[in-house]
Amino acid sequence: MARILVADDDPLSIKLLDFRLRSVGHEVIFAVNGGEALEIATREKPDLVLLDIMMPVMNGFQVLRKLKSQEETKNIPVIMLTSKVQEKDVVFGLEVGAEDYITKPFSFAELNARVNHVLTSRS
User: Fold this and answer.
1) Is 1:26 a contact under the CB 8 Å cutoff?
2) Residues of 20-50 as b/e, b for ≥16 C-beta within 10 angstroms?
3) Residue of 45, 103, 109 whose CA lies nearest to 79
């Protein structure tokens, strides 16, 4: 399946996403702050990034902007996965370049469907 970078500073979210994504065959790598997420994405070139907005060092919007501005990472699809539910945040994330925006708490069935949609639309 796919190699997915999960960028989130919440240990519970990381454990849940690791378990669920691996259970459907994905390889999962992690970053616990925005700076680490940018570094890992640039080095590892994952198939997809699941990106929280509220993280230390750099927030998810800053990471997304950087990813989309760098030649080596601009084509990596990003799904924002966050508790920020305000319409302005959703719109901003999509305008900056996210392929999708999912709010927490989320249904794994919906997350899996959206992940699969983004991955298959890129292949």
Assistant:
1) yes
2) bbeeeebebebbbbbbbbbebbeeeebbbbb
3) 103
Angle between helical axes of 60-69 and 87-96 (0-180°, round to 10) = 20
Query: Does pTM top 0.90 for this prediction?
Result: yes
Q: Where are the domains of the chain?
A: 3-122
Which residues lie closer than 8 Å to 53 by C-beta, 6 or more apart?
59, 60, 61, 80, 82, 84, 89, 93
Tell me the per-residue pLDDT of 58-70, one tens digit each, with 9 for 90 and over: 999 999 999 999 9
H-state helical runs in 52-123: 60-69, 87-96, 108-122
Give the homologous superfamily in CATH for domain 3-122: Response regulator (3.40.50.2300)
Residues 6+ apart with CB under 8 A from 36: 7, 57
